């Protein structure tokens, strides 16, 4: 899985989740303390087969605790497992 | 919504006046004010007072989708607003006594977010979600939907009042959350539409307020709390804290609710609402804590106590509601008020 940037893979059009007009919104990743990685902006989530992962929202939270049953997305399980992000 | 059945003198008088079936003179409104004043003075607990909570609910409803047979002009009637403020003052004082806010964190976004996660992570009594997942009967699932229908069939609306009252980072964050709540403009994906579909799957009426008569005072109080916070600009900190608390206590319970409906043989059409919230609110809670609540406090540090109060109030009132429902279920009783809607 990799986070692509601005445009569609073949560069033919706007990315699927670009909802605003104008140039692509830069991607930002917030490492939420003791929680997921929150990704905003115009990006694509690509699976190992090169296809876009199923996605229904523009901003996503990616699990980094390993406990989610909705991987790669966070499902709040980090709170149950007491995941700590600080080393 | 259709006119509810009154539960006491105040509600009966209000509905008679605004429904045009009683007198509609100024004397009747003055009488309503006196009746409400007396009811507020003598209620043992306004949170469980059916007459006062329904009266307040109807007064707020004038600002939402209205009540059948009630002329729209009542919304800004000065005497009615005075009656509303009487109930609101007692209601807010009661909630402030119930939802005590402890030591304040620093007024930074990260500290506010951490404190909200701490507050919402504390165990607050019996778990309805675990019960629904493992034990609830089919009738109890329907009761659960009745309680939730009062807010979920217009999910997100009370918090939307806050949008024009915020600015900058907090506003962008609130809009980002609300856009998702409203399905990013797709009717079928609006959370209220998903909830309506769940109700239909269980053969229930998905019209707003269809089961209002069955909802006990505390369920109405939980809804009135959002309207109190949302409709009063001075409480904008509280409505933001309230939303943050809701988002932060949603993902895990919704996974369990979904399991309860699946246990009774229901498929995606019924569980979709709950499944959607597992993923959505894992995103929303981060945005709500850090950017919306944290962003608001950074831009206006004076709102910090009210942000935490709003969150504490949401948890306190809803845990009273849960306790009441669970107590009824444990005794093998219905958690609802007797009503025609549930009898059919
Ligand atoms: S980071 Fe949230 S479930 Fe793993
Ligand atoms: Fe929602
Ligand atoms: Fe949400």
Task: Give an account of the 3D structure.
The complex is a heterodimer of chains A (about 90) and B (about 350). Chain A is mainly beta. In chain A, about 5% of the residues lie in helices and about 20% in strands. In chain A, the strands form two sheets. In chain A, strands 2-3-5 form a three-stranded antiparallel β-sheet, with no helix packed on it. A two-stranded antiparallel ribbon of chain A has the order 1-4. Chain A is globular, with a radius of gyration of 14 Å. Chain B is mainly α and about 350 residues long. Chain B has two domains: about 10-100, no CATH class; about 110-340, Heme oxygenase-like (Heme Oxygenase, Chain A). In chain B, about 65% of the residues lie in helices and about 0% in strands. Chain B has 16 helices and no strands. In chain B, helix 3 packs across helix 4, helix 5 (about 110-120) packs parallel to helix 15 (about 305-330) and helix 12 packs across helix 14. The interface of A and B includes residues 38, 56 and 60 of A. Bound molecules: FE2/S2 (inorganic) cluster and fe (ii) ion (FE2) (2 copies). One fe (ii) ion binds near residues 155, 181, 191 and 277 of chain B.
């Amino acid at each position: 899985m990799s986070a692509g940037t601005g445009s569609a893979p073949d560069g033919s059009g706007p990315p699927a989740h670009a909802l605003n007009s104008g140039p692509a919104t830069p991607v930002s990743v917030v490492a939420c303390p003791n929680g997921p990685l929150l990704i905003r902006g115009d990006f694509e989530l690509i699976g190992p087969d090169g296809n876009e992962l199923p996605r229904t929202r523009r901003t996503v939270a990616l699990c980094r605790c390993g406990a989610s049953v909705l991987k790669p997305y966070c499902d709040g399980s980090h709170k149950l497992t007491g995941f700590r992000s600080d080393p | 919504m259709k006119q509810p059945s009154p539960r006491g003198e105040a509600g009966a008088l209000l509905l008679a006046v605004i429904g045009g079936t009683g007198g509609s003179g100024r004397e009747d409104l003055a009488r309503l004010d006196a009746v409400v004043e007396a009811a507020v003075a003598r209620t043992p607990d306004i949170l469980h007072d059916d007459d006062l909570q329904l009266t307040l609910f109807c007064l707020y409803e004038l600002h939402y989708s209205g009540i059948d047979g009630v002329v729209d002009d009542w919304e800004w009637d000065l005497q009615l607003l005075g009656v509303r403020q009487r109930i609101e003052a007692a209601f807010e004082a009661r909630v402030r006594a119930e939802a005590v806010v402890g030591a304040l964190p620093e007024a930074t976004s990260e500290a506010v977010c951490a404190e909200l996660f701490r507050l919402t992570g504390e165990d607050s009594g019996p778990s309805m979600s675990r019960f629904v997942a493992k034990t609830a009967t089919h009738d109890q699932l329907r009761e659960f939907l009745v309680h939730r229908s009062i807010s979920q069939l217009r999910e997100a609306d009370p918090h939307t009042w806050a949008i024009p009252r915020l600015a900058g980072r907090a506003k962008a964050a609130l809009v980002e959350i609300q856009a998702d709540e409203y399905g990013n403009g797709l009717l079928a994906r609006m959370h209220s539409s998903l909830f309506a579909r769940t109700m239909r799957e269980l053969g229930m009426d998905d019209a707003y307020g269809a089961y209002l008569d069955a909802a006990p005072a505390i369920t109405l109080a939980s809804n009135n709390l959002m309207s109190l916070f949302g409709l009063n600009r001075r409480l904008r900190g509280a409505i933001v804290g309230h939303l943050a608390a809701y988002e932060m206590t949603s993902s895990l319970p919704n996974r369990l609710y979904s399991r309860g409906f699946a246990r009774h043989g229901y498929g995606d059409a019924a569980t979709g609402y709950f499944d959607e919230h597992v993923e959505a609110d894992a995103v929303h809670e981060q945005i709500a804590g850090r950017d919306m609540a944290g962003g608001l406090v950074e831009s206006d540090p004076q709102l910090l106590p009210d942000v935490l109060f709003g969150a504490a109030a949401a948890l306190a009132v809803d845990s009273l509601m849960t306790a009441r429902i669970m107590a009824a279920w444990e005794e093998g009783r219905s958690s609802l008020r007797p009503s025609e809607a549930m009898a059919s």
